[in-house]
Amino acid sequence: MTVTDHSEATVRPPRQSPLGRAWAFVRNGWRGLTSMRTALVLLFLLALAAIPGALLPQRSLNEQKVDKYIADRPVLGQWMDRFELFDVFSSFWFTAVYVLLFISLVGCILPRTVDHYRALRTPPVRVPRNLARLPHHHRVVVDGTVEEITDRARSRLRRWRTEVRPGEHPGEMTLSAEKGYIRELGNLVFHLALVGLLVAIAVGKLFGYEGNVIVVADGGPGFCTTSPAAFDSFRAGNVNDGTGMTPMCVKVKNFRADYLDNGQAEMFTSDISYQAGADLTENTWRDTTIQVNHPLRVGGDRVYLQGHGYAPTFTVTFPNGETRTETMQWQPTDMSTFLSSGVLRIDPPGGMYSTDAERRQNQIAIEGLFAPTAGFHGSLLTSVYPGMTDPAVAVDIYRGDTGLDTGRPQSIFALDQEMVRQGRLAKEARVNLRPGESTTLPSGAEVRFDGAKEFANIQVSHDPAQQWVLVSAVVMMAGLLVSLLVTRRRVWLRVTPEGTVDQRRVVVEMGGLARTDQAGWGGEFDRLRQRLLDASGR
Fold first, then answer.
1. 3-state DSSP call for residue 433?
2. Residue 113: in which H helix or E strand, if any?
3. pTM, rounded to two decimals
4. Which residue intervals of 122-178 are DSSP H helices?
5. Coil vs helix vs strand at 391
């Protein structure tokens, strides 16, 4: 006879099919993604991912700074560019974290919302058998019947959710009361508002646009938002093609910069005139003033004053007596003193030369440095203060083909050095000039420095969801405060007749429980006890 020891038998679980294993993997992955712990980790990662966007130059804000950063660090800069560290907020990895956080929050909030709705419809928890084991407990004998004491306590707990039930013993009544459901509601509101904030930001990035344009602050023609071509740089949302912009025209009348004694900028102010809506057909101009962080708001668009710089003015008098005057913005190379560099290209007057080839050989190019407050080290020019108190320029003057007719793109801040190397553009003078001073070239042309004007960098920004970002942020703060300040607490009363049921004396046992005592629940329980019991007896 064979005896089998079933105690050592191994029970193998049934093997799952490949489809079942795949479904289990998806289910477990979804549970992990929609957990609150994962949402907090993703929120931390999103904040961490935004740090490079704050510390490194971004192409959407200043492409020239990005190019200079990469040029100064040719190896590291190229690798950083491959990982999109100069386009952080549109990078694939930032977008991935953003989308995962959105999915995690939605998957986490919906079940919690359903649970909270069910909790609101569920009667308060029954009275525990042993109230003496609770952190807060009180027992007292009072005059009155069970019904009188129960009804009196229930009436004094108007703002609590209450439920009266018969007790386990004859004549006994119990009262369950709960308060603080708004704590969970505040938590849900906070997370729902966070989802709304993410949606509003995404909508703004998809349907918004930003355009930057440099305008000389002398009341000139200004610009109109007719098309992206009106801007020096334009960035539209992923589903915005740059059409349908709010019609508007802007003129910049002046620019004022307030500096501290050490040269630090304190405030930028600009007086502008603008047209929008019916003003465009009626040719009516409205005056206003814009400052940093105080934009003009028109039809959902915002007109920001982003920055400023200087635009030197030169007059060239050609040998035949005709003159050409040009004003062109130069790029600040030192933001602390606004030492700026740039170039002007001046074409001879029409009809002065018989052929185009001869005309191109006599174009004038002026390239060099501008200092709003000049400081000289020998013949070397520098700037000692950002305000324009003593302007001067140090320039190289060229004559020849400036490359305006070559069809090749030209930088407005530098000459094409290939034209210089080929000898098509020859240097004729190097001089330092103050306003009103001039120099005469070997060709007989005279170049005079007339001074400089200030230019303003104006940004027109459109964000259709801007107000919803503000509303979501305010609701988030309100929900967070509610969830932090409100405490979930419970109170139970057991009212039992003392002796026989006919006697008008009862034993009242009261217990209280809260999730935390940090909000002063102990003191609240004592005040509640006095209100419910001590006023009824001893």
1. strand
2. helix 92-121
3. 0.67
4. 146-155
5. coil
